[in-house]
Amino acid sequence: MARRSVGRPRLPVLDRKTIALAALDLADSEGDSAVTMIRLAKHLGVAPSALYNHVSGKDEVRLLIQDVVMSRVDDVGLKQVVAGEIALDEGLRQWAYSYRETFARYPGLVPLIATLPVGGAPATQAMYESVAAALAAAGVPMRQIMPVIVAFESFLFGSAMDVHAPADIFRSAPGDDEAVTPTLRQALDAQPRSSADHSPNPYANPPFEWGLKSLCEAVMKLVDGKE
């Protein structure tokens, strides 16, 4: 029987993917402020110096977090638009649903990723290229492509966070003067509830679907030259 070698315990093999996944796990569970090189090294069970063989510091780790999240957004529908296989609005819908679902898993990271640059984040750049290429292939004027992307992303980040908003976020609190908000209360009472929605906020889906439909219709008007 072979004898076990005596020496230091075997350390985990580090690479950028391993670091990215560990950083995402740490940021998701404890927040972005917890992702320091010292905390990340402890999370991985290595010395902090070992991380610097793969990343330059916390700023690059943040880009890795962004990339690993963005790589989970499905852009197949957008590529089908470029290939002429489906219409632009359908491709945008597929992408938007995946984007919202992905970020709804990591709502705490939305403020971080929404403000990070895309330079140095190849998976993020590739995702944006897919959106831009689909819009261009469908005939959206080049000057309108970035406004469309920013409008969609603003809507999708907010929609992802709304999945976790309290269902009674607009309700009056005990002691409030309800006479101040009679129209708001009527609107709340009339709001449809999605019976198929099992998210913390059962009212999140209908507004998302309405907003997405409105955005897609606006983009198709750009294609048709009506705006």
UniProtKB/TrEMBL annotation:
GO terms for molecular function: DNA-binding transcription factor activity; transcription cis-regulatory region binding. Keywords: DNA-binding, Transcription, Transcription regulation. Residues 13-73 form the HTH tetR-type domain. SUPFAM superfamilies: Homeodomain-like, Tetracyclin repressor-like, C-terminal domain. Pfam families: TetR_C_1, TetR_N. PROSITE patterns: HTH_TETR_2. InterPro entries: Homeodomain-like_sf, HTH-type_TetR-like_transc_reg, HTH_TetR, Repressor_TetR_C, Tet_transcr_reg_TetR-rel_C_sf. Residues 36-55 bind DNA. The keyword Transcription regulation applies. One of its GO terms (biological process) is negative regulation of DNA-templated transcription. The keyword DNA-binding applies. This is TetR family transcriptional regulator.
